[in-house]
Fold this protein.
Amino acid sequence: MAELKRPLRTCIVCRAKLEKEELLRLKCENKKLLKYDNYGRSFYICYSCMQHLDAKELNSKENKKIQKALCFQCKNKDEYLVQLKEILTDVR
């Protein structure tokens, strides 16, 4: 029997193509960042990009790159890094 190809998803920050298990799926709703609940549009962030959030400086180059990608996906400017850190503490 032929092996089926597993679909790849793209991280919005580093643009790496990875399998679903290596990514966190999020969505924006009413200017809030939420974990995906099977309703609406979503996007993915890889765990290696999320490790840069553990840095103490919020204005570091990596954090600005994550913030820019989140603002682009949510189509507005807001403090999404804080919301992403709250989601990560609940997930882990």
Notes: The radius of gyration is 14 Å.
